[in-house]
Amino acid sequence: MREDDAHVKNIVLCICDPDEAYLNRLNGFIQHQEHSPFIVRTYTGPDGICADEGISGILLASSTFFDSFQKNREDALFEKDWGYVVFLDEGTGSLPAGTDISFGDVPVDVIDKYQSAAHIYEHLLDLCSRQGSFLIRPELLKGSPVEVYGVFSPEDKNMQKRWALWRARETARERPCLYVTFEECFVPENRGQGLSRLILLLKERMRDGDRNLEALTNLDGLTAAEGMLDLLAPADCPYDLKEMGEDEWYCWLEHMIRHGKYLAIVINFGPGLPALCLLELCSRIFVPVSQNDGQAGKDFKNLLEFMGKEALVQKMELVPAEGI
Predict the structure, then answer these.
(1) How many helices and strands in the chain, by DSSP H and E?
(2) Cβ 167 vs Cβ 149: under 8 Å
(3) Are 113 and 63 in contact (CB under 8 A)?
(4) Which DSSP string do the residues of 170-231 spell out, in sequence order?
(5) Does the pLDDT at position 5 exceed 50?
(6) Three-state secondary structure call for residue 263
(7) Among 88, 136, 169, 235, which one is least packed by beta carbons within 10 Å?
(8) What value does the CA radius of gyration of the chain take, rounded to a whole number of Å?
(9) Cβ of 177: how many Cβ atoms within 10 Å?
(10) Is pTM beyond 0.85 here?
(11) How far is it, in rounded angstroms, from Cα 245 to Cα 111?
């Protein structure tokens, strides 16, 4: 179950509650959450779920239906491929006391129905995380001591590279820093090291369904050191970069922020538009501009504003590139 920056939603969430107004409010809240991974389907009773074919995902159901579920264990409801069943406890005593709650072999959880929609939503995301689902949740990194600086210039890629390297070297004067570049070039002398080697290791781990990438935050042997600055060499070949999706880069960078040894990460975003989910990880977004009017940088900022990405716009800084 994965999501990318194009807001692909592929975790089916079936909400079953007799109160149609409650259903609509909860559904509306979830649908309007940025980076929500859920395809929401709503039902006012179990019969609708039984009739709906090909469902797999999470069932979020009112506790008033618990007895009905247990009395009809042979019906199509139990044959669905549920990853989790969560009961919304209405406090009416319809759920058995203690832990005697079962739904076949499916894990079951119970939460209070009459709490905020935000708390219910966060609880569902936590369940998905425990099951290994990939989620974009930049808010969890707030307060981290690690600063991530993204560098992107729609005007001049050589200027972008020079400025990003300068920013990394200046930052490394004060704290351990990692420089990552997504520039497209041919570097045969790397011989499979640097970013190309990292991509291979990441793909091997993720191909096996393992998204615990903590071990791959140790970049010994993959970087070149300049004092407190570690430089991750660019990919040997542009095609290597195409092996990784935006969500996979997000996953690795999130692990670097949580578990890596660096207090700063500088990202040269290369030739293409930066993925929005990676910009979400940035503490600051630098847009180098020339002595001209810097219109291309302003246009990029206006584009983000037009898209409603105000939080990203607030991080953006148009910076002069002369003298670097």
Answers:
(1) 12, 12
(2) yes
(3) yes
(4) HHTTTS-EEEEE------GGGTT-HHHHHHHHHHHHHHTT----GGGG--TTTEEEETTEEE
(5) no
(6) coil
(7) 169
(8) 24
(9) 25
(10) no
(11) 35
